[in-house]
Structures are given as C-alpha cells and as structure tokens.
C-alpha cells in the first residue's frame, strides 16, 4: 500500500468532524483556513462559529464595518488576517458577484491568500490537484523521509512543495490534503507523536533513526526586539477616556488603544510626567497611579512589549470623548482587553 493510500485509510477512520467539512462551499473553507493560520482548531472553532453565524455569506462579511470584523477577531492575533479577509470579501462580493475563483492560479491572486490557502480551497472545493504544505505537512514529510532541509528556508519550501505534489492522490485531492493535515495535527504531533501506533512506523526514517525530536529543522529565529509601552489610561470626572485608532503598517493596525508613550526602557512616574507627550496631553492637574506593579510582557512573534498601564485621573479633558460604559464596543489588542477586564474587576 503506498503513502497516500495508507494516509487516506487512516483519515477515514480518524478524521475530525469539523463544521467547515460539512460543505464544499469555498466561503466556509476559506474562512476556516484563514482563521486557523497561527491558531489551533480548539481556539479557532468558537471564532469560526461566531463569524459564520454573524456573516453567513461573503456578502454579509463584505457589508460589515472593518471595526466590527476586527472586534469579532479580537483575541486571535495577527490582525492583518482579518483586514485581508474583509478586503477580499468585498472584492469577491462586489467585483466577482459573490463567486469564488475555482482555480489555484486565480485564488492566489486574492489578498491574504498564499500558496497553502489557495491549494486548500482549490483541492477541497474544486478537486484541483494541488498539494497543501503547512506546518503539519512539513512535520509529517520531514519525519517520514528524514529530510533535514530547513522548512523555513527558500530551498526547503521548494523541496517540500515538490515532494508533497508527487505524493498527492490526484483522484481525491481534497480528501488527501485534509488527511495529511489531520494526521500531522492528531498523530504525528510536534510533541509526543504517537509513533508506536503509527501506520507508517515500519517505513518512517525519523522513527527508525530516533530523529522525531530533531525533525523538522528550522533556521534560527529572527532576533526578538524589546519595546517598552506606557499606556495612559485616562479617567475624567464624567467617566470619559481617550481611545484612538492605530494607523500605519505596524502592529495592531485598525485597533484602538489608550494614549501611548513608547520609551527606551522601563520608566517611573517622574519620567512619565516630565515627558513631552504627557505635558502636551495634560495641561491641568492629574492624579497618577501605576496599575500593574510589575511590567506585563506581551509576546508577539518578533517583539516583546514590556507594558505599564498608568491610570491618569483628571477633572476634565476636551479630547476625552469615549464613555467608559461604551469602551467594550471598540476593537482593541488582547493586551488592552486583558487590562480592561482586570481593571473593571478591581473597580467594581
């Protein structure tokens, strides 16, 4: 029995019952694939169900405000996924009359859709013979064939794509692709793979040579950058604050935040109140307290945000127009969402 037959046989006995698999509607498959990039199924499921309930068609998603989409995405991270999702939904609804492209070649032209997602939609929805290559696939193939080429190198990306394509069962491309993804997620897991009960145990190089912990190989990560954030959480006498939308191409584009002073290191109260940003923002008398006694370290893929939340109380402030009672309506980074939850608990 060859590789694809063994894999599909395993899948038919062990596949996960996932809501997007009940239909070959490309909208649902696309939505699930975008959500599950950088996100585990267990975490993404609730978001997927909420999205499909709120936006049952691509037209519903296209007609939504971006802030609504970002608010519903809150907690999933990598917010560019949500912005691209919304952009592409509008393109499909308005320019393509709601009809998804049916080929890999056309799908990959859509914003936010790369090789993996285009291959997944083309194969699952339209049975086009395109192999998917994601983290699960890299892991299965590198272990089974004993490949030590780094999966995040240009040579590795090319090598694994070619290999994946040669293994694809072109008569049932969608089933094969879902099989290898499930096999990597459930059986050939990153930690503690189930090698003893693996249908490939008698022919897997990593199992034979005790290499499962070494494979797949990744090139060294990009150096992590430390940043120091000081959020000024304003509270006026009439219970108002300032929240502003983050612009530009940096992190959290389109999300809202309290006024921010970014410093070179952790600062104290004296350094805060003598900063140009503070003096400009608060012409009148204020009462200041540090909410978190130890800085909160919020870890993103290539940067660590060492964060302090300063509670700044003042009688009045013309720029403070957001009511505290309405603050939950705004899409905010999970770092600020967690602070708000803790702050409101302590305030009650």
Protein architecture, described:
The chain is of the alpha+beta class and 348 residues long. It has two domains: 206 residues, Hypothetical protein, domain 2 (Endonuclease III, domain 1, Orthogonal Bundle); 123 residues, Nucleoside Triphosphate Pyrophosphohydrolase. Helix content is 43%, strand content 13%. It contains 15 helices and nine strands. Strands 1, 5, 6, 7 and 8 form a five-stranded mixed sheet that branches. Strand 7 and strand 8 form a beta hairpin. Helix 2 runs antiparallel to helix 8 and helix 9 crosses helix 11. It is elongated. 30% of the residues are buried. The model has no long low-confidence stretch (mean pLDDT 94). Its cofactor is [4Fe-4S] cluster. It catalyses: Hydrolyzes free adenine bases from 7,8-dihydro-8-oxoguanine:adenine mismatched double-stranded DNA, leaving an apurinic site. GO terms for molecular function: 4 iron, 4 sulfur cluster binding; 8-oxo-7,8-dihydroguanine DNA N-glycosylase activity; adenine/guanine mispair binding; metal ion binding; oxidized purine DNA binding; purine-specific mismatch base pair DNA N-glycosylase activity. Its EC number is 3.2.2.31. Pfam families: EndIII_4Fe-2S, HHH, HhH-GPD, NUDIX_4.
- How do the SSEs run, as a string of H and E? HHHHHHHHHHHHEEEEEHHEEEEH
Share of residues in strands: 5-15%
Uncertain spans, ≥5 residues at pLDDT below 50?
Answer: none
CATH fold-type name of the largest domain: Endonuclease III, domain 1
- Count of extended strands: 9
CATH class category label of the largest domain: Mainly Alpha
What is the general shape?
A: elongated
Determine the fraction of residues in helical runs and give it as a percent range: 40-55%
**Would you identify the CATH H-level superfamily of the largest domain?**
Hypothetical protein, domain 2
Q: Specify the structural class.
A: alpha+beta
Q: What's the architecture of the largest domain, going by CATH?
A: Orthogonal Bundle
Domain HhH-GPD: 35-186
Protein name: Adenine DNA glycosylase
Pfam family, one: HHH
EC number: 3.2.2.31
């Amino acid at each position: 029995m060859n590789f694809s037959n063994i894999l599909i046989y395993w899948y038919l006995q062990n596949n996960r019952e996932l809501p997007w698999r009940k239909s070959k509607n490309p909208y649902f498959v696309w939505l699930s694939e975008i959500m599950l990039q950088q996100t585990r199924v267990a975490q993404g499921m609730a978001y997927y169900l909420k999205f499909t309930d709120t936006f049952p068609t691509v037209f519903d998603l296209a007609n939504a405000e971006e802030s609504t989409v970002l608010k519903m995405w809150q907690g999933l991270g990598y917010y560019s996924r949500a912005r691209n999702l919304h952009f592409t939904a509008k393109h499909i609804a308005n320019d393509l009359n709601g009809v998804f492209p049916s080929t890999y070649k056309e799908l990959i032209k859509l914003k936010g859709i790369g090789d993996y997602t285009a291959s997944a939609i083309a194969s699952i929805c339209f049975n086009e013979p395109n192999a998917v290559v994601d983290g699960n696939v890299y892991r299965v193939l590198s272990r089974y064939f004993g490949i030590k080429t780094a999966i995040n190198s240009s040579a590795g990306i090319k090598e694994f794509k070619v290999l994946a394509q040669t293994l694809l069962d072109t008569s049932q491309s969608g089933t094969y692709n879902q099989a290898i993804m499930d096999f990597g997620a459930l059986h050939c897991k990153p930690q503690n793979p189930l090698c003893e009960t693996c249908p490939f145990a008698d022919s897997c190089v990593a199992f034979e040579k005790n290499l499962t912990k070494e494979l797949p190989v990744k090139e060294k990560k990009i150096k992590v950058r430390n940043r120091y954030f000081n959020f000024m959480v304003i509270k006026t006498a009439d219970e108002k604050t300032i929240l502003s939308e983050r612009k530009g191409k940096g992190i959290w584009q389109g999300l809202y935040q309290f006024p921010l002073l970014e410093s070179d290191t952790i600062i104290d109260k004296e350094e805060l109140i003598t900063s140009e940003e503070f003096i400009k923002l608060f012409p009148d008398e204020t009462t200041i307290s540090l909410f978190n006694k130890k800085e909160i370290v919020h870890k993103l893929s290539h940067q660590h945000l060492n964060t302090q939340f300063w509670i700044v109380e003042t009688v009045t402030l013309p720029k403070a127009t957001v009511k505290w009672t309405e603050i939950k309506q705004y899409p905010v980074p999970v770092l600020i969402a967690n602070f708000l939850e803790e702050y409101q608990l302590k305030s009650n």
